[in-house]
Amino acid sequence: MRDVYVAGIGITSFTRLEYPLVEIAAYPGLMAMRESGIKSIDQLYVANMGAARVNHQSGLASAVVDNLSLTPAGAETIENGPASGASAIKQGFLAVASGMHDTVMVIGAERMREVNNLEATDFVATLTHPMAEYIYGVTLPSLAGMFARLYMEKYGVTSRHLAMVAVKNHKHAMDNFYAHLHEEITLEGILDSPDASTNNPIVADPLRYYDMCPVSDGGACLILTTADLAKKTGKPMVRLAGVGQATDTHAVHDRKDPTDLLAVREAAKKSFAMAGVKPADVHVAELHDAFTILEIVESEEAGFFERGQGHVALQEGYTRIGGKLPINPSGGLKAKGHPVGATGVGQAHEIVLQLWSEAGKRQVKNAKVGFTCNFGGFGNNVVCLTFIREG
Amino acid sequence: MERNIYAYKCKRCGHVQYPYRTICRNCHENDHNEFDIVPLPKKGKLLTFTHLFNPPSDFSTVFLSLGIVELEDGSRITGQLSIERPTIGMHVRANVEVVRKDEYNQYYGMVFYEA
Amino acid sequence: MSIDLEKILRPTDTPLPEYPPKYMTLAGGEQLVIRQVTREEIPEILPHVEPLMHVERDFYDIVASRVYAELLGYYTYRVQDEYVLAAQIDGELVAVVNGRMANKDVGISYHTLALRRGLRVGAHAFAAKMEYHLDILGQKEVLIVAESPIGFRRWMIEYKLEKRFHVPHELGGCPSWSLTRELYDAARDTLIVGRRPVPEQLLKKAQQAILPPTDPPRPPVDLLAATRSLYDSTATALLEQRKKLGGLRDA
Q1: Which end of chain C has less neighbouring CB within 10 Å, N or C?
Q2: Is a pLDDT exceeding 50 seen at residue C235?
Q3: Chain C residues 156-185 with a CB less than 8 Å from chain A
């Protein structure tokens, strides 16, 4: 297998975007090409989850490849739920590593705000088991609520810990121009003040409003290529060193221990093994905090902390920028936003930016090894990536 | 008529699975459809739960209580709760009722009550 | 002669009880003060509303234009029984809401304009307006129309308003929706927050000066974010705008 490097990146704001999905996909592609000076692309992968359903558009990749005037390059749409982004990167990795293509563009794009919140939530809820979960009215927030309740009871995590994740990630997002939420929140405002229950109402008990990610539109892009071509861009050499994927039962109740995120554990392990690093070697991580509880649990399952110690590390400031292992310096899904199909590519965008030392005010010092965890379904399909800066 | 939710018992290894899978999760026997259909028990204990305050738009209730229950035979199921103050570990009993309706269809599922 | 004419043009206001100021803590920990502003303070507000008339996103242009006209109407005595409430953080203007009393029993809600996005600032200001009509003025219902989808979702979903489609709304939008006393009472515990009296320092700061919003909604700088493309799936409007501005720029 050939080594695979990142040649260019691009992103749109993750927010409500008022332009067509095809342009949400094309704009980051344009940015990545301009920045890297790369004009010829052999293959395009577009990660998207809901275009056919939400935007009434199928065959997105064919539309995007033409919009970017990249025809006759190959183009495919990759759908893997909220893990579509990292899955598309995986396909790009395989294409370059195998020697089939030299330059591959991976785009993630989603436009969810075209419909209202309830419809968007219902669209995401179609990920759940149709007969064993969906018919009961199960949505992703309710799965997260049930998961959180059990986990909190087991490991002594409190609503305060969850709120700390939100406060931290909102703070990180303040320095991210492309983040969805630019509002700093405080524990007093969302937990302690007499008005907190209105500011931060319960959505899926015990999870509250500020425990959930927003519904976002957005796009992101990564150009993957060989060592030789990457050198020509003049950017620091960042290698996509580890790709790991794992799955778990479709219905959440079917898992032996419903507080286990087995797929995260397995995917992270595979990704680290392939990259030849240990969790302790990682300098910066982007985890899939669609719900605050997930950041805590994923940080344990990925191997950064012992089981049941994630919230302790959080409390001690370990995971904020300036701490020992900053998690979600971009603001994470919680504050940067969660355009489902684009999220995985967005996470990789942030890690590459960090490894290039171009993250500005939110730069993690001396970041050489970065990790992303892109979580599909409620943990039934997880893709983890490890990036290493060389030199 | 008493309604049931059915699980699938592998004819080779006896493993009971719910929901349905084409291949048994335990023995990976791959003959087609080699399962006996068995009703799930209706008693169990509550493993975890939530009150969802933004239920899907076709539910007209203010909130929807959902939970995962471990049934007597060790299998697990997600269901709706009709319990005012649920607690983890409490004993519950189930009734199979309509849990969701759309225009022409109605779907039956387990609704749990305090035992 | 001209004085007489002004007399004819100027409606007679019913003396209305004042809205007692209140304050609350936002998710960000700041203290939000909501108070009624006097007619004399309107010129302090107008310059902060005007720039939003040019923000072609999220219906800021239409709402700000109408709020501007309504405030001017209030200032120059052209609307009967109108009132204006302002929401301020450290003196900074973050939301303006207004409305008027149609008759003893029915209130008319005009507009809610948030000059700072997020943190429920607009929602709190809207709730205060409802509180004024139903608790302070003791009216029976408030007629509401939404001009933006954001407003519609918030008011209709949070308060579950009743239909009054046979009643035309003053703003021109028919169907009207109504917040009745019953619905208001049901929403009271969760949506109507705030404490009184406002600590003296806090109130003084708010009354001292209406400061400009520090982070008001701005016209889209990102050229691709032209709102007109919302109605234009071919995005030609977008291309036109790009051409006008001389090609792409960095966001």
Answers
A1: N
A2: no
A3: none
In chain C, alpha helices (H): 2-9, 42-49, 60-75, 121-131, 149-159, 181-191, 200-208, 236-244
For domain B43-114, give the CATH number.
2.40.50
Residue C168 pLDDT level (bands cut at 50, 70, 90): confident
CATH number at residue A44: 3.40.47.10
The count of domains in chain A is 1
pLDDT of residue C1: 57
pLDDT at A312 over 80: yes
Q: How many CB atoms lie within 10 A of CB C95?
A: 24
Q: Is C119's pLDDT higher than 60? A: yes
Q: What is the pLDDT of residue C157?
A: 73
What is the ipTM metric for this complex?
A: 0.94
H-assigned helices in chain A: 21-36, 60-67, 84-97, 117-125, 140-155, 159-173, 187, 196-199, 227-232, 262-275, 292-301, 310-315, 332-335, 343-355
Considering only CA atoms, which of A181, A175, A174 is closest in space to residue A338?
A: A181
Mean pLDDT calculated for residue range A251-259? 92
A122 touches chain B (CB under 8 A): yes
Kindly tell me the burial class for residue A256, based on how many C-beta atoms sit within 10 Å of its own C-beta (0-12, 13-18, 19 or more): exposed
Q: Does A107 touch chain B (CB under 8 A)?
A: no
* Domains and their CATH numbers in chain C: 2-137+190-219 (3.40.630), 221-251 (no CATH)
Among B18, B48, B62, B76, most A C-beta atoms within 10 A, so best to mutate, is B48
For C201, residues 6+ apart whose C-beta sits below 8 A from its C-beta are none
> Which structural domain range is residue A23 located in?
5-116+215-232
Q: How far is CA A159 from its chain centroid?
A: 23
Rounded to 10 degrees, what is the CA torsion of A372, A376, A381, A384? 0
Nearest to B77 by CA among B54, B51, B106, B45: B45
Please name the amino acid found at residue C79: V
Quote the tokens at residue B8.
């699938």
Confidence of residue C229 (pLDDT cuts 50, 70, 90): very low
Contact indicator for B27, B14 with CB cutoff of 8 Å: no
